[in-house]
Amino acid sequence: MGKATGFMELERENAVERDPLTRIKDWKEYSAPFSDEKMQRQGARCMDCGTPFCHIGMDIAGSTSGCPVYNLIPEWNDLVYKGKWKEALERLMKTNNFPEFTGRVCPAPCEGSCTVAISDPAVAIKNIERSIIDKGFENGWITPRIPEKRTGKTIAIVGSGPAGLAAADQLNQAGHSVTVYERSDRAGGLLMYGIPNMKLEKDVVQRRIDLLEEEGITFILNTEVGKDVTAEQLKEDYDSVILCIGSQVPRDLPIQGREYNGIHFAMDYLTNATKHLLDKTKTPNDSLNAKGKDVIIIGGGDTGADCVATAIRQGAKSVNQFAINPKLPIKRASTNEWPAYPQVFSLEYAHKEAKEKFGEDVRQYSIQTKAFITDGNDGVQALYTVDLETTQDEKGMISYEELSNTGEVWPTQLVIIAIGFVGPTQSILDQFGVKTERNRIDAEYGKFTTNVDGVFAAGDARRGQSLIVWAINEGREVAHAVDEYLMGKSKLPTVIAM
Ligand SMILES: Cc1cc2nc3c(=O)[nH]c(=O)nc-3n(C[C@H](O)[C@H](O)[C@H](O)COP(=O)(O)OP(=O)(O)OC[C@H]3O[C@@H](n4cnc5c(N)ncnc54)[C@H](O)[C@@H]3O)c2cc1C
Ligand code: SF4
Question: Which residues form the signal peptide (predicted)?
Fold first, then answer.
């Protein structure tokens, strides 16, 4: 275990963050890994409690608690405390294919269920994870692992997000020949186009893809399955197909004036900003550029927060983010006890930046957009909102009521809709003949088989829009299922029976 009395002697230290007013002038990552000393101090705080909840991913009241890939957290905390970095890295790589992603952008449900967090701030698990893997790359300990034997079996994976990449990594290591099809010009899914550069730098994503390629995985980019290659062709050419196509069809807001120019979906906005950065084109698409504009982001979640941080960097005149829900409490409510994910107010990186830049939290709570108002030239000039009252019944069902005598007009020239996603693209599923259930691919967790023989599904396309760590979990698990399907048995790890 860490230091026996560490949790009593040592305080939690948070990741080092660059000054908000400095970092908004560039697109580099806003946080940095721990120094060795800090990492050891934080590892020492782990209690190695008898029954750790931090490494067991489960759903409690609709939120994730504990680590979905079952990271061996107390074990690597102890190794870090003892300065055994390489051994800590080995333990970490046993359960997580891509800790450099989760160590940067995972919301860390492990920390909400850390036993220290019953009474004190949790062990800084996420940043220890990032520090271990960053150290591994810095020291050249991460090298290509090229499988010694090939099985002769071929697998096509559609989609190169974290689910597709994790499945590809596992199946390649099992000796199968894996080809990943991706419709974008770069691999990575939402890791590449979605999550902004200041949260996860794109060369960190590309470094992993290059490594997977060196290990023998083939990536075919700019190729949309269902259009450039048919489902029939894939089924014919490969022994098995895995659909990891994400859940990227956006939820719309069909209210008065939705057709005006200047109203965009969050993914179009974020993708354009990252493409502009990576391709070094002179200006981003003008109508998707926040420079000098009053920007309103509709949607109170993390995607909306990423749009806030992006708009600030593009030089927006003002930014507001609307949420239909009320502000969260400072402390856990009695209905949200440990080890459930803490539903409490926090100032995330984007909101810290907005507060420093504009002098206040830019989130507006309990507010609903009712109509867009035109500038007379088919462009958006303002939008109209009303306030909401939220009530919760004894079963936890939330309902919203519009408050009479409220109503406000907000000037805006750029509106970003970030109210979630409805599911995967239907046309490719129709071509495969794969069934869906509530807009998700119908494939039972643990089996991952669809109604079509040899066609499997994993990640957001099966689960609904979720987290990177869940996508990695599903990628690893579907790999186990496909390996078993092809070979009769599988030595690939699985946590499902645990
Ligand atoms: C803006 C944003 C920010 C987020 N931030 C975080 C965060 O900070 N932390 C976190 O844990 N989670 C975050 N998430 C959620 C997380 O990114 C997803 O849960 C995760 O990426 C899902 O992985 P996936 O592999 O299932 O799908 P995706 O990452 O969506 O990848 C699917 C891929 O399939 C490709 N594809 C689809 N159809 C085809 C086709 N027909 N042919 C070829 N290719 C195809 C797509 O182009 C895409 O590359 C965020 C989501 C969004 C939208
Ligand atoms: S992957 Fe997420 S939940 Fe798991 S240890 Fe890392 S930060 Fe925690």
Answer: none
Q: Is the pLDDT of residue 440 over 70?
A: yes
**Using only C-alpha atoms, what is the Rg of the chain?**
23
- In short, whether 172's Cβ falls inside 6 Å of ligand 1 is no
CA 412 – ligand 2 centroid, Å: 38
Rounded to 5°, angle at Cα 327 from 326 and 329: 120
pLDDT band (50, 70, 90) for residue 319: very high
Please write the tens of the pLDDT for every residue from 443-478: 999 999 999 999 999 999 999 999 999 999 999 999
pLDDT at 182: 98
Q: Are 313 and 34 in contact (CB under 8 A)?
A: no
Q: Is 460 left (phi over 0), alpha (psi -120 to 50) or beta?
A: alpha
Q: What is the pLDDT of residue 2?
A: 65
Residue 218's DSSP bridge partners are: 179
Please tell me the predicted confidence (pLDDT) of residue 498.
Answer: 59
Whether 362 lines ligand 1, by a CB cut-off of 6 Å, is no
CATH architecture label of 6-138: Orthogonal Bundle (1.10)
Which helix (H) or strand (E) is 17 found in, with range?
strand 16-17
pLDDT at position 497: 63
Residue-wise pLDDT tens digits, 238-295? 999 999 999 999 999 999 999 999 999 999 999 999 999 999 876 667 889 999 999 9
- DSSP secondary structure of 438-462: TTEE---TTT-B-SSTTEEE-THHH
- CA-nearest residue for atom 1, ligand 2, is 102
Q: What are phi and psi of 263, to 5 degrees?
A: -115, 120
CATH superfamily of 252-419: FAD/NAD(P)-binding domain (3.50.50.60)
Please tell me the residue having the least CA distance from ligand 2 atom 4: 67
Q: What is the distance between the alpha carbons of residues 476 and 492, in angstroms, rounded to a whole number?
A: 8
Tokens of 372: 């867009």
Give distance in angstroms: CA of 257 to centre of ligand 2.
Answer: 42
Ligand 2 atom 3: the closest Cα is on which residue? 67
pLDDT of amino acid 15: 82
The reply to whether 154-248+422-487 and 252-419 are identical in fold is: yes
d(CA 160, CA 187): 5
Does the CB atom of residue 243 touch ligand 1 within 6 A? no
Domain ranges for the chain, please list them: 6-138, 154-248+422-487, 252-419
> In DSSP terms, which residues pair with 408 in a beta bridge?
385
At residue 338, what are phi and psi to the nearest 5 degrees?
-50, 140
- Kindly give the number of the ligand 2 atom that is closest to the alpha carbon of 73: 5
Per-residue model confidence (pLDDT) at position 126: 95
Q: Which two tokens stand for residue 130?
A: 């990032």
